[in-house]
Amino acid sequence: MLNSLQIKNIAIIESLEINFEKGLNVLSGETGAGKSIIIDSLNFVLGKRADKTLISFGKDSAQVVAFFDISDCQKAKLILQDFDIESDDELMIKRTMTQDGKNTCSINGQKVTLQMLRDLTQSLVDIYGQNDTAFIMNPKTHLDVLDSFGQEKIYPQKISLLKIYDEYKETQAKIKEFGSYQDLAKNLDLYSYQIKEIEEANIKDGEEEELVALRHKMNNSERYVEALSNSFEALNGYSDMNAITLISQSISELKHQAQDDKEIQELLDRLESAKIEIKDIASSLDDMVQSFEFSPQDLQNVEERLALVRTIKRKYGDTYEKVQEYLNNIKEKYDFLQNGEETLKDLEVDLVNLEEDFYHAALTLTKIRKEVAKELSSKIEKELAELGIKNAKFEAKFKEIPSSGIYFDEMEFLFSANLGQPLRELTKIISGGELSRFMLALKNTIANLDSINTMVFDEIDTGISGQIAETVAQKLYKISKDKQVLAITHLPQLASMADTNFLIEKVVEDGNTKTKVTRLENDALIDEIMRLMGGINTKEFGRPHAQEMKDYANKIKNNL
Predict the structure, then answer these.
(1) By C-alpha distance, which of 240, 264, 260, 238 is closest to 251?
(2) 63 - beta bridge partners?
(3) Of the spans 221-225, 463-467, 487-491, which averages the highest pLDDT?
(4) What percent of the chain has pLDDT over 70?
(5) pTM score > 0.70 for this model?
């Protein structure tokens, strides 16, 4: 529920905080005092479209902060989890707008987009005002209203229908993958060719790099052999100046001195080891020179093999691993398609069966919806009768030829307010005054069917008085027993029924007009009820009447 609303620099509200309570919260005041500004502020923080004209004159920015208790709002908690925003049972939402049109939104101190803000707040607050009838005046929403009302009966069947639909689409996709019987044969030939090409190429991991290195060696063979030969000559060639000869001479000179000198003996041992190592290196160089024999054909073979490896990688994957992955994939497809003709026939039979299952499941859904529609019609007509439209008739009309949509049905609400008048499309026949009462009847009927904990009614009582006003007050109070209700009103009956009352006033301070909100209790509350009754100048008679209305409301509340 909405715990508090902090408003700064919105229209004539300089700085204001309203702490709301559970149950029925009623806001009243003179016309122009700023009641609509509070609703505008709430809409603003909930993410509704706004422009800089909302900002107070002479101010650079406007800001609204809303605090919610979401302890029993699981949907909001799941949305926050999806947003990766930490939360406990209290939620803080803040939105700021500057004169240059910049919007900043945050949830629990974490910046979010405006769309993220809207996605969250749709699960927290439902606002209905005099002009907030667009959704019911759009026939495309009527089926959603019906489904919401009958969700316990309708949603399981919708889930069943969706499951069949998913199986149908999956089967369609498999058939598409097979293609026609002619495509089937072509695909088998293609996969067979590709498997053979990859397997016969038999490329190895790292083979391209090895071939590139070998080709480089072959292309530089003369220099390669010359370098190896010169190195061999320097180490153990035929010249008297080769390394082995020189080391041997050094060993010979030192042998006579090493007998009595331990340090020289150690150096002599090291020279012997070096001589052995150099001989081994020289031998390896000689072997490499002797073994390095190739013909032009050898170079051509390397070039051809390198071209083949690169072709395979270009066609089936730019790495050895990707080529192997592609090979495994088409092998699976080939094995699958080998029995393709029989499998394709089975899939086509499955598709026909699923179409039939879908049709029957959709007919069942329609049947359930029509049963629920009768329930809804009965409840709405009863609500409208209590709201003064005693002869109202309400009905859900289904199209005889279903649509091709997944949930099959097309439906529109029909309405008649007067006895003897035929039912016609609600969107074409309902008047403004009837629409307000219809919306209240609808809200009262489906209020407990969603998880939204706060409902706001902005002057839904316009044009209502007398006994109907009392009925409206009682209906809003009944809603508030399960949900928090905020209602802006001109009705004394509704003000009397409230659990918490707020007076909205326009005052002048330091030459500036400001909006002020006061929580009303005791005598102040009776005075406001009396004002709403039109008895502000007759306190002698108005006060007892206002007190009587409040006492009567308390009695009614105890019995509801």
Answers:
(1) 264
(2) 8, 96
(3) 487-491
(4) 92
(5) no
The DSSP code for 51 is -
DSSP states of 468-529: HHHHHHHHHHHHHTTSEEEEE---HHHHHH-SEEEEEEEEEETTEEEEEEEEE-HHHHHHHH
Amino acid at 264: I
Per domain, the residue ranges of the chain are 198-335
Closest to 53 measured CA to CA, from 114, 4, 99, 5: 99
* CB atoms inside a 10 Å sphere around CB 442: 21
Nearby residues of 387 by Cβ (< 8 Å), 6 or more positions away: 437, 440, 441, 468, 471, 472, 475
CA-based torsion, 256, 257, 259, 260: positive or negative: positive
**DSSP assignment of 210-236:** HHHHHHHHHHTHHHHHHHHHHHHHHHH
| 411-416 vs 90-98, strand pairing mode | unpaired
Q: CA nearest 4: which of 47, 46, 64, 67?
A: 67
Q: What is the mean pLDDT of residues 463-475?
A: 83
d(C-alpha 19, C-alpha 28), whole Å: 15
Distance CA 446, CA 456 (A): 15
Helix/strand number for the chain, H first, E second:
19, 15
- Residue 126's nearest CA partner among 556, 517, 379, 457 is 457
Strands 90-98 and 500-509: unpaired
CB burial string 24-60: b at 16+ within 10 A, e below: bbbbbbeeebbbbbbbbbbbbbbbeebeeebbbeeee
Which 8-state DSSP code applies to residue 85?
-
Model confidence band, residue 560 (pLDDT cutoffs 50, 70, 90): confident
Sheet with 424-425: strands ordered across: 393-398, 411-416, 424-425
Residue 65 β-bridge partners:
6, 94
CA proximity to 333, closest of 476, 183, 457, 445: 183
- Mean pLDDT (the chain) is 86
How do residues 431-444 score in pLDDT, each as one tens digit? Answer: 777 887 888 888 88
Q: Write out pLDDT tens, residues 7-51.
A: 999 998 989 999 999 999 999 988 878 888 998 999 999 998 888
**272-328 pLDDT, tens digit each:** 888 899 888 988 888 887 777 666 677 788 889 999 999 999 999 989 999 999 999
Nearest in space to 443 (alpha carbons), one of 133, 226, 123, 200: 133
Q: How many CB atoms lie within 10 A of CB 249?
A: 11
How far is C-alpha 94 from the geometric centre of its chain's CA atoms? 21
pLDDT at position 294? 67
Q: Which of 524, 450, 443 is nearest to 487 (CA)?
A: 443
Q: How many residues does the chain have?
A: 560
